[in-house]
Amino acid sequence: MTTNPMRIVHCVRSPIGGIFRHIRDLATAQAEAGHDVGLICDSSTGSTFDNRFLEELRPKLTLGLARFPMQRQLTPKDMSATLAIYRHIRDLNPDILHGHGAKGGAYARLIGSGLRLFGSKVARIYCPHGGSLHYDPNRLEGRVYHTLERLLGRITDGLVFVSDYESAAYESKVGQPKAKSRIVYNGLTPEEFAPVTVNKDAGDFLYIGMLRDLKGPDLFIEALYNIRLKTGTAPRAHIVGEGPQEERYRNMVRKLGLEDAITFHGALPAREAFKLARNVVIPSRAEAMPYIILETVAAQRPLIATRVGGIPEIFGRYASRLIEPGHIGKLTVAMEEALEDPVRMEREASELQRCLAATFSTDLMNDRITTLYQDVQGIAPADEATPQAAESASADSSAQAVYARSGNR
Predict the structure, then answer these.
(1) Which residues contact 386 (CB under 8 A, 6 or more apart)?
(2) Do the domains 7-187+361-404 and 191-354 sit in the same CATH topology, yes or no?
(3) Residue ranges of the Glycosyl transferase family domain (predicted)?
(4) Nearest partner of 277 among 240, 332, 232, 223, judged by Cα
């Protein structure tokens, strides 16, 4: 148990996907360490599958789970939502207000600054998780969001980046951070490194992730269609996940005549989904540090993925195996080669898993973030880091060095 317990409130708009997995693991570790933890999120987001994880987390949140209406885009409704969330957070009297994603980060920093005007010493922490950093800086929308990030950066005490890529994107699109910053990789638990064996009737390919174009399920479907055009038979595939564009993908499958080859399952736990197919395909167009890549590698499942965001940092010296994002031809070829040489795919999955455990750990993730909290509060200066933090910093440096040598910075 910690000797310096803190009152920590996490704020995120959408409690789904990798961003919520990060919060869930972090909040659990913080609660187990003796801190009081709370969570604030949107009241309208999340399926039955997502809400189940929220309810499982609730008993660990001594500062409670509160849900308010939060819009994805900037709207006039943000004013009333900010006021309601401010009143709730004020009553919790937090030491740390940790915002996740663009909207959660905005609420945390604006509300934290309001509290400080009335004497609070709350620390304002922000983790982008990709978010506004995915926007093109040459387009109007990107310029607006990046300008807002620059303004909010002036009222930020600490920044957490989940990958070296995300840190570099912030510097190039927003500017040099004025706050203390730290790169903290997402982590997995030891039990997640147990290999998963597929079902006897397993298909050829699995897509697992949110059903939206940013994640590339349309590319996955089109690649399967291309293989059928070439061979006369479409590989058997499974699509696991939920999202705003699901119906479009179902229509795409019907239009291409792939109903007999592709099965939609909705959301499933990752390790259950891995049993459905021999190869996992993550054809993302953009990412920060995706949990599904970490989970696939830890489960020792053959993986085809794109060179985006922090994925090359996960692959390290094996980053040359990644394919160009958005390139349907190269994705098709990679999937064809996986069908032709399953032994190679299994061997590569084993090689990749062995180099993952030391760097991507929930214990290291929690330690690095907690010591940042202490640092911005003046409790644990950076030059007096704990042995665990020093170990984590060494792991981060080693991974980044491998990434730099692979030519992906």
Answers:
(1) 367, 371, 380
(2) yes
(3) 191-346
(4) 240
> What is the Cα–Cα distance from 270 to 16, expressed in whole angstroms?
14
**Tens digit of pLDDT for each residue in 44-86?**
888 888 899 999 999 999 999 999 999 877 777 888 889 999 9
Q: What is the dihedral of CA 20, 25, 26, 29, to 10 degrees?
A: 160
Q: Which DSSP symbol is given to 290?
A: -
Q: Which CATH class is domain 7-187+361-404?
A: alpha beta
Q: Give the whole-angstrom CA distance, residue 164 versus residue 144.
A: 24
Structure tokens at 387: 């042995």
Q: Which fold has domain 191-354?
A: Rossmann fold (3.40.50)
Domain boundaries, the chain: 7-187+361-404, 191-354
Please report how the helices 291-298 and 17-32 are oriented relative to each other, as an axis angle in degrees rounded to 10: 70
The gap between the terminal CA atoms of the chain, to the nearest Å, is: 39
For the question of whether the overall pTM of this predicted structure is more than 0.70, the answer is yes
350-377 tens-digit pLDDT = 999 988 877 899 999 999 999 999 999 9
